[in-house]
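Sample 1 of the test manifest.
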Amino acid sequence: MSKVLLDVRNMSVSFGGVRAVDGLTFSVQEGEVLSVIGPNGAGKTSAFNCITGFYQPASGSVTFNGSDITGKRPAVIAASGIARTFQNLRLFGDLTVLDNVRAGMHVRIKQNSLDAMLHTPRYWRSEDAATDEAHRWLDFVGMHYDRTAQIRNLPYGEQRRVEIARALAREPRMLLLDEPAAGLNHTEKTQLLDLMRRIAALGTAVVLIEHDMGLVMEVSERIVVLSYGKEIADGPPAAIRSNPAVIEAYLGAEDQEAHAEAERIAAEAGTDGIAEAR
Amino acid sequence: MNDESTPRTMEAPSAYVRAVEERAPANVAPAGSKVGTFTDRRAALAETASGLLASRWLALGLAAVTLALPYLNSSTYVIQIAIDALIFIMLAVGLNIVVGYCGLLDLGYAAFFAIGAYVSGLLSTRYGWPLLATIPVVVAAAVIGGLVIGGPTLRLRSDYLAIVTLGFGEIIRITANNLDFTGGPNGLYGIPDFGAFGLRADVALYWITAVIVIVAVLFSSRLGRGRIGRAWRFVREDEDAAEAMGIHTYKVKFAAYIAGAIFGGIAGVLFAAHQTAISPPSFNFLWSALILMAVVLGGMGSVPGVVVGALVISLLPELLRGAENWRYLVFGLLLIVVMIFRPQGLLPSRTGEPRRRGRQSQGGRP
């Protein structure tokens, strides 16, 4: 039933002398929600960038849906069914909300330049279909502000939603979310949790980088923990929460204080407001 | 520019989209209700104001006036100036595709202008081709020129691209200056026009130029609103984000560069016909700079703006003739004043959704 969708083997990337990702191996099953966590600088975003082609891995291989995508151009990887969001919003600031979402469906819009110049029926059909679909995705993520407005004039939380809508419009098999909860308030985080569940219900695998442990524990089926570019743990949330290696990676030394802190984190994760709100 | 690898057409909603609809959250506004009602009044006002400026009626009116000009005033002077202005508009809307839509700073655009003028000039003077027949060859030459120049340069970003295009612009001009084949520094002379069709020769050329330029303006504006035009804007706004959406940014930039080259090449044919003689100094850096100035002055990415910018740059020195030798000083000062008070250009591009076909309101929900 569960099939391996993404398979990362022994992937490494270095910047100067720093091995940002060091022999990382992990896989993502079809339709699963996987979180990648780790202290700052653990190589989470670098790993994302290697998978999506923005960095060239120095060694190792990335296989997606049975085909090797190691070192391919980001556009090619995206077209093969991986969509992503960025840690710092990367929207097309001058363009409208709808245009931003249309970017996601660019490769599916069946229209050539001649259609555009001559305004053929095919042009109108494809434009209308793209607009309708953009509205559907914005409905899906719950973005109800003025959709004809310039995106940079929208509140931050709404921009986050649009970025996810844009990635979803790519109709990905796998969606990589890089800290989607950063800068969101409590209500928005609850909505994000609900949104991620609905995305998973579409059959899309979700890979999440996130620092909000409450959110991670609540939504993930499995968690991969990175430290100094290496995987130190991989398992369901309950196992990760009590894993000594994880606690050590987050807190440095295994001392009295650390244990107390770890217990606090664990307790918080269990009874987090997000969980309560549901 | 159509992707062959398109996985699926957009015409019927996919199973994925249907699944999305089924799972859409309950808090979605009911279908048919307007989103963002609170902005409706402001949006409606803005629409009336800018809609008037960019409306199809105004564009049609201007096209009609352009075509009717010889009936309004057919003095040789007016027709000459008008042809110059039209050619300049063509160059500006062509460069607008590269600089305005796609954000590629091209300082050597006159290269394509030169390629167009020289190819059609050579074919017509040396081999006796009718000028109209040279246009397909000019388009092919512009595409080849675009491939040769764009191939290495479009891998570069921003400032580097500007410097390298500047270099290529000069290379084309200096090559023309040094080849015997192209007439060296003397250039080519005796280039025929398109034919008089029983009219005064300059009026016939005016009408041919007007029709070509009107079509070019229309096509460049429509390209900007279509799939490829959106891709150009995505690349301009954020290349990495565009890549992450599956847009092959190198190909998209190439498409912009080649489209610009074709516009420049055809403008070159019109220029050759109009001047009847061309020589290398006609295509110096000043041309590239002036065309770029028209684009920036009018409003990058805005076709109505760029047309206005081109008219200002080409006509203002003529209108300032009364200022005698001071006119270029006044011209320069006016440009500086405009740049201080309207840095976004005279008619900046509007961010907004194109009107939908049919009765649906602008930006309304489907």
